[in-house]
Design brief:
Layout: H1 12-16, E1 24-28, H2 32-38, E2 44-47, H3 51-54, H4 66-79, E3 84-88, H5 98-112, E4 116-118, H6 126-134, E5 139-144, H7 150-153, H8 163-178, E6 183-187, H9 191-200, E7 205-208, E8 216-219, H10 221-224, H11 241-257
Parallel strand pairs: 1-2, 1-8, 2-3, 3-4, 4-5, 5-6, 6-7, 7-8
The structure holds 3-methyl-2-oxobutanoic acid.
């Protein structure tokens, strides 16, 4: 079971207080039903903009809109009662200025009821993170591989392999921590860098492809369940759902074709007719 919070939802402050303690557990979810299943076991649920790739089949997260994030954020809030729900701000909704970011983030908070937002970027987003947190919006940062920048970083590549890149990611992480974020995702960085960042910043680091050195871990649910076609090196498949779904659908198709489904127990019978009393002869 996850964080003990006496029946209330986990907050951003609860997560912040877990720095250096028991590892923080997180998964993504985009739906009410998966949120309901994972809610008792995780500390926070991320409604990630990876939903664009996972649910909609886009090649990147770039096409995801604020309306898409709000719709799935609402579903996850309806499906969960315990975990903190964090909703990603999608590409184009926050980078222009702190005021634009506030407009997008406040819409997300009002329309979903979630407890925090996440945005990508280090030093370049520090003023925005400060602007939002000073105005009541808890912000989770995201450094290392930032998928919304795929077109400028040249692909989904591991970060921090060379000294210059490691230095840049470390400075990004420090800027995020100093600007008031309550936690940060560290994505696809080499292990020594994840360790250094985790030791040097005062807020929890949540790793994805960033080694066990982080204060917590996050995975995309569909990847760890074995629903995605391709899984990166850093994912362990804890399930093989695609195979189970295929077997179930094959069995259903076979039953329909040979009229074995629906069976009698799946069929509504008509209400038995009340017998009309026979007239007695001579009555
Ligand atoms: O969108 C997402 O799912 C994410 C995780 C990869 C951290 O940002």
């Amino acid at each position: 079971m996850s964080l003990a919070t006496e029946g209330r939802r986990v907050t951003a402050l609860d997560i912040r207080a877990r720095k250096g303690g028991e590892p923080i557990v997180s998964l993504t979810s985009y739906h009410a039903h998966t949120a309901r299943i994972i809610d008792p076991f995780v500390d926070f649920i991320l409604v990630g903009d990876s939903l664009g790739m996972v649910m909609h089949g886009f090649e990147t997260t770039i096409p995801v809109t604020l309306d898409m994030m709000i719709l799935q954020g609402q579903a996850v809030m309806r499906g969960s009662r315990h975990a903190l729900v964090v909703v990603d701000l999608p590409f184009g909704s926050y980078e222009e200025s702190p005021a634009a970011a506030f407009r997008a983030a406040s819409r997300v908070m009002k329309e979903t009821g979630c407890g925090a937002v996440k945005l990508e970027g280090g030093r370049r987003m520090a003023d925005t993170i400060r602007f939002l947190t000073e105005r009541g919006i808890p912000v989770m940062g995201h450094v290392g591989l930032t998928p919304q920048s795929v077109n400028t970083i040249g692909g989904f590549k591991v970060q921090g392999k060379e000294d210059a890149s490691a230095f840049a990611v470390r400075r990004d992480a420090e800027a995020v921590a100093e600007s008031g974020a309550f936690a940060m995702v560290v994505e696809a960085v080499v292990e020594p860098l994840a360790r250094e960042i985790t030791r040097s910043v005062a807020i929890p680091t949540i790793g994805i492809g960033a080694s066990p050195e982080c204060d917590g871990q996050i995975l995309v649910l569909e990847d760890m369940l074995g629903l995605s076609d391709w899984v990166p090196k850093f994912v362990h498949r804890y399930g093989t759902l695609a195979g189970h779904i295929e077997e179930a659908v094959k069995a259903y198709a076979g039953d329909v074709r040979k009229r074995a489904f629906p069976a009698a127990e799946n069929t509504y019978a008509a209400k038995p007719q009340a017998e009309t009393p026979r007239k007695r002869s001579g009555a």
